[in-house]
Amino acid sequence: MWLAPGLGVKRWLVLFVICTLIGAVGFLHFTWTGPLHFVATRWILWLNALTSPEVMPLYVGGMTVMALALAGALLSIMMLSRSMLRSTGTAPDQALDVIYSTRTLARGPRIVAVGGGTGLSNLLSGLKAHTSNITAVVTVSDDGGSSGRLREALDMIAPGDLTDCYAALSDSPVLARLLLHRFDRGEGLAGHTFGNLLLATLSEEQGGLQDAMRDVHEVLRVRGQVFPATTTPSTLVARLSDGREVRGESGLAAQVGEARVEAVRLDPPDLPALPAVLDAIRQAELIVLGPGSLFTSILPALLVPDVARAIRESAAPVVYVASLMTEPGETTGLGLGDHVGAVTGHLRRTPDWVLVNSTPVPPAVRARYAGEGAEVLDPGAVGSDLRGRLRHAPLLHPGEQARHDPDALAEALVALTPRRVTL
């Protein structure tokens, strides 16, 4: 990989070889025409004595010595670099990853991904192979599980989806594994992930996650950036078709019943956004919404006023990644047009593209999901105004679960950027 395009290594390697050859010629000229002429003569006579003109021409011996000397010089440079890297605690393969990330991936498209849950982290794990200019804007209104317990105890934003995104973008497999480790025993620890506890610690130590973001990115070796949509704790409130209001993300699906979710809002409504999030949106070449749960992962991030305003004013195309399946209670009975309509209504901007899976979901997978009250989201039943915005790609990951393939999804999204980049 040291010779991969864009690393900036080959040019200096070629320069080293050229300078070495020129230096060899200069040294030969010096010894032949200067006071060391007798040394050059003895060297040539000795080298000629080792080779027989009948076996190979005399100049071949000189070329062989020159090649061996050049190989030795390159080996010495390599070993010197390896020793210097190890003295700083950096393994050579880690250095290669850093150079590849900073030189090659840094030229990739600037993409902002908005959402939460496993859908967003799944997308990020695919995107990081194409670009390091990734900014994840994460929904932080979850009030269940480990996140809910930490929110209640520390009055902080929900860290769970942030942890998943940090793990997806981390350049260290060991750190990614540790972040997702969930304790299954221990009083007060059971149910928490290490990543959630780490973010809670940084939030306490620095008086909030806003001031801890820089430290988090450096410690976790994140390829890109991960930010919460807001650093102020908030509660998701859903308005149902029967007039009821349901507070809290975790209990939404169970309380919908026969009704449908018509709209969602955050309480309090006037939530601030991080300046770094707004800057990333302004500089973005592509803004991706999803994939993920419509009302509990995607829309809550768009309910932060400054985030929604920045997306509306952005010149970058907005892509909505359609879900593969409906979600029991949350989106039961909703078609693709309803999903896009909900995004448009809350964002007040219609997505430029709607990315839809073209791979059929296997019958066995459909049947299993049907038993849970979910069905395949039908992309065919849409109006003519939306049909022209659809973009189809084979996005289904093979297996027993209906989920997006991270590599296929990333490739399809990169292809929609104004400047398609092939690395």
Walkthrough of the structure:
The structure is a single chain. The chain folds into two domains: 10-92, no CATH class; 108-414, Rossmann fold. The protein has 18 helices and ten strands. β1 (111-115), α5 (117-127) and β2 (134-138) form a beta-alpha-beta unit. The chain is elongated, with a radius of gyration of 29 Å. It has helices at 10-33, 37-50, 58-87, 92-104, 117-127, 145-154, 160-169, 173-179, 194-205, 213-219, 252-256, 275-283, 294-302, 305-313, 336-347, 363-371, 384-387, 406-414, and strands at 111-115, 134-138, 225-228, 235-240, 245-247, 261-267, 286-289, 318-321, 353-357, 390-393. Helices cover 48% and strands 11% of the residues. It has 423 residues and is of the alpha/beta class. InterPro entries: CofD, CofD-like_dom_sf, Gluconeogen_factor.
List keywords for this structure.
10 strands, alpha/beta, 423 residues, Rossmann fold, seven-stranded parallel beta sheet, 18 helices, three-stranded antiparallel beta sheet
